[in-house]
Design brief:
Largest sheet: 7 strands, parallel
Order of helices and strands: HEHEHHHEHEHEEHHHEEHEEHEHEHHEHH
Oligomer: single chain
Structural class: alpha/beta
Strand content: 5-15%
Radius of gyration: 24 Å
Distance between the termini: 44 Å
Shape: globular
Number of strands: 13
Helix content: 40-55%
Length: about 500
């Protein structure tokens, strides 16, 4: 590992970023443009029908956002000119050869010029179709690797994964790779080519039977969960990400490979300003539901550590790690970026912050009245959850069904609506249940070593802070994160 100035490393670099309109990718791009305007070129790959549509999408979904306000303040009316000089927006698809780039001259140009590839493109949907998740999270990573092998100047490939490839492991989860065919439950026989064949044959059969698109989607979602759980992973997302890691480690040859595994990503801590967030993530949906008065109970262990990390710290770790491992031919290093070892926060603290915030800043409902929140009933076991559901939902549904039958289906609409609500809740518990009682702690020894050596080398740790020990969680959630989420919901 050779550490130099990160800002200096970025100067005159050419960087390819996949999934360029994703949450992390936009923060990454903004950071590079802001701290090193002398970056040579950013090739930004995203899905669109052509390059014109890609540019329009990037301008709408990235440049027009508040995230770019510091750059707008700096460059004013010249911002679009600056970005057009530094960034080439490309329509592409990581599920295709040559990343779906249609212009052969542009492909050749990238193979000649690219120094760093940052692969962020993925589907993060726990309940994704198996074919979609395999294409993006597993085989998409290999198309990116194949592209990287053709880049004559490549110094490092950075692949963003997730810490939850560990599944439901308890205890200290190390920053170690998963070997090809390795499973979490010891079941033998995991073969990625076989998984692809199973997916293709199932899809072919469904189409041959004339299944509707809705039926095919449902069946492919169920297939993903079934295959994941067969080998010990709780959902399709983390299973396909784990297989992507396996293939990268097995096929990288002499490519310097950095795999970065963030935990639960939250709003920005400092940069470009505190509290920027986009999209409602798992813990955010709970906060919004609670603030609106819709969340009266929650299933989970009150003492469980919730491993969260602000998005800008993830991006800073990405940038420092790609500098640190540039030109280390054939190397592979894994960084878990989280807080559960160095600055843990438990569920009961999050609950307390939410209660205090929404009591001081109540949500205003559509009638213009403040929503008064109270303490949430925490169900600490699956048995208590099933009892709660039986008493508050299943029993009323049974009574309603009897009345509905007596009154000639008068309440049929309400019966169906309650059925849907119950099925929705049970599906969420099925998907997220494994994390509600999660007992794992993510080791970040490699990440801590990188932080320590960066500090000792005197690089710009104030500009590229990724130390969770610097976070006061109470201040962050009360004054930064929850206000940021509320602001996003009201947009």
């Amino acid at each position: 590992m050779e550490l130099t100035s990160v800002v200096k490393f970025l100067e005159n670099r050419t960087i390819l970023v996949t999934g360029a309109t994703g949450f992390l990718a936009k923060i990454f791009v903004e950071k590079i443009l802001r701290v090193q305007p002398n970056v040579k070129k950013l090739y930004l790959l995203l899905r669109a029908k052509d390059n014109k549509a890609a540019l329009q999408r990037f301008n709408t979904e990235a440049v027009a956002k508040d995230l770019f306000k510091l750059l707008r303040e700096k460059y004013g009316a010249n911002l679009n000119t600056f970005i057009s000089e530094k960034a080439t927006i490309i329509a592409g698809d990581i599920t295709c050869e040559k990343l779906g780039v249609k212009d052969p001259n542009l492909v050749e140009e990238m193979w000649r010029e690219v120094d760093v590839i940052v692969n962020i493109a993925a589907t993060t949907n726990f309940d994704e179709r198996y074919d979609v998740a395999l294409d993006l999270n597993t085989f998409g990573a290999i198309f990116v690797l194949d592209f990287a092998k053709k880049c004559s100047k490549l110094k490092v490939l950075l692949h963003v994964s997730t810490a939850f490839v560990s599944g439901e492991k308890a205890g200290l989860i190390l920053e170690t790779p998963y070997n090809l065919g390795e499973t979490l439950n010891g079941t033998s026989g995991l073969d990625i080519d076989t998984e692809n064949k199973v997916m293709e044959e199932t899809l072919k059969q469904l189409k041959a039977e004339g299944s509707s698109e809705q039926s095919i989607t449902s069946a492919m979602k169920e297939l993903g969960l079934e295959r994941a759980r067969k080998y010990g992973w709780p959902n399709t997302y983390v299973f396909t990400k784990a297989m992507g890691e396996m293939l990268l480690g097995n096929l990288k040859e002499d490519i310097p490979l950095v795999i970065l595994r963030p935990t639960i990503i939250t709003s920005t801590f400092q940069e470009p300003f505190p509290g920027w967030v986009e999209g409602i993530r798992t813990i955010d949906s709970l906060a919004v539901g609670y603030g609106k008065g819709r969340l009266t109970c929650f299933l989970g262990d009150p003492k469980a550590v919730i491993d969260v990390i602000p998005a800008d710290m993830v991006v800073n770790a990405m940038i420092v790690s790609m500098m640190a491992h540039a030109n280390e031919r054939g190397s592979q290093i894994i960084y878990q970026v989280g807080s559960s070892v160095s600055n843990p926060i438990d569920f009961i603290s999050l609950q307390d912050y939410g209660l205090r915030y929404f009591r001081a800043n109540p949500w205003i409902n559509k009638d213009g009245k403040p929503v008064i929140v109270g303490k949430v009933t925490v169900l600490s076991t699956m048995d208590s959850f099933h009892r709660y559901m039986a008493l508050h939902y299943l029993l009323p549904l049974k009574v309603l069904e009897i009345v509905n039958t007596t009154l000639c289906q008068y309440f049929q609409g309400k019966c169906l609506e309650l059925h849907r609500k119950i099925n929705f809740v049970m599906r969420l518990i099925d998907l997220y249940g494994p994390y509600l009682f999660f007992k794992g702690i993510f080791d970040d020894m490699n990440t801590e070593k990188l932080r320590r050596e960066a500090k000792e080398a005197g690089i710009e740790i104030d500009v590229f802070n990724f130390d969770p020990k610097s976070i006061n969680w109470e201040d962050y959630f009360m004054n930064t994160h929850v206000p940021g989420v509320v602001k996003y919901v009201f947009k």
